[in-house]
Design brief:
Low-confidence stretches of chain A: none
Structural class of chain A: mainly beta
Largest sheet of chain A: 7 strands, mixed
Number of strands of chain A: 11
Number of helices of chain A: 0
Radius of gyration of chain B: 14 Å
Number of helices of chain B: 0
Helix content of chain B: under 10%
Strand content of chain A: over 45%
Largest interface: A-B, 23 and 20 residues
Oligomer: heterodimer
Distance between the termini of chain B: 41 Å
Distance between the termini of chain A: 36 Å
Structural class of chain B: mainly beta
Helix content of chain A: under 10%
Mean pLDDT of chain A: 93
Shape of chain B: globular
Chain lengths: 115, 115
């Protein structure tokens, strides 16, 4: 299995621009999670989906952030407009319901820099 | 609300020293427990997990952790660290039941191993 795939791996953009991060979960996994990691705040859960439906988006920092999962093999996290404080590493993770231990498998992350 | 506390934010050791990283969680019910490792510039990888059975769990690379239910603890240990163990270590807990796969992560412990 290829594992969780994220793109792009690095993104540099200017303040005010729209940023779209992409994630392909492991095939057969029906939970998908978006995390943000910064030095100041550590690892934060932003939102997670089950069977393509958003379950908990309480971690989304503000309305500039939105996430979608149009099908079982693709999800996006969009920031519009972006701000310098959004600079972070964004991780996507997936998990199968059949795994009762609820282990999550992480992607390589997208390092976002907003100038 | 569930929470995870990692006692040490930074640990510095010499090679061959023994390691113990503390992790305590707050949740009165049945839990799954995890230790993830993040090597510099990489994504989180599972080190070990406790789901049920023997409370002493053995993971990859010589790591082990012991679940002590009465102390709400899941400390990570390694008898002899190597330079390649330099990484950040995250403890995480998932409360079983309710069908939710949300993991609560601790703040992480940065381990630096000097040759």
């Amino acid at each position: 299995d290829a594992g969780v795939i994220q793109s792009p791996r690095h993104e540099v953009t200017e303040m005010g621009q729209e940023v779209t991060l992409r994630c392909k979960p492991i095939s057969g996994h029906d939970y998908l999670f978006w995390y943000r990691q910064t030095m100041m705040r550590g690892l934060e859960l932003l939102i997670y989906f089950n069977n393509n439906v958003p379950i908990d988006d309480s971690g989304m920092p503000e309305d500039r952030f939105s996430a979608k999962m149009p099908n079982a093999s693709f999800s996006t996290l969009k920031i519009q407009p972006s701000e310098p404080r959004d600079s972070a590493v964004y991780f996507c993770a997936s998990s199968p319901t059949r795994d009762r231990s609820n282990e999550q498998f992480f992607g390589p992350g997208t390092r976002l820099t907003v100038l | 609300a569930q929470s995870v506390s990692q006692h040490n934010h930074h640990v510095i050791l010499s090679e061959a020293a023994s390691l113990e990283l503390g992790c305590n969680y707050s949740y009165g019910g049945t839990v799954n427990l995890f230790w993830y490792v993040q090597y510099p510039g990489q994504h989180l990888q599972l080190l070990l997990k406790y789901f049920s059975g023997d409370p002493l769990v053995k993971g990859i690379k010589g790591f082990e952790a012991e679940f002590i239910k009465s102390k709400f603890s899941f400390n990570l240990r390694k008898p002899s660290v190597q330079w390649s163990d330099t990484a950040e270590y995250f403890c995480a807990v998932n409360a079983r039941g309710g069908g939710y796969n949300k993991l609560i992560f601790g703040a992480g412990t940065r381990l630096a191993v000097h040759p």
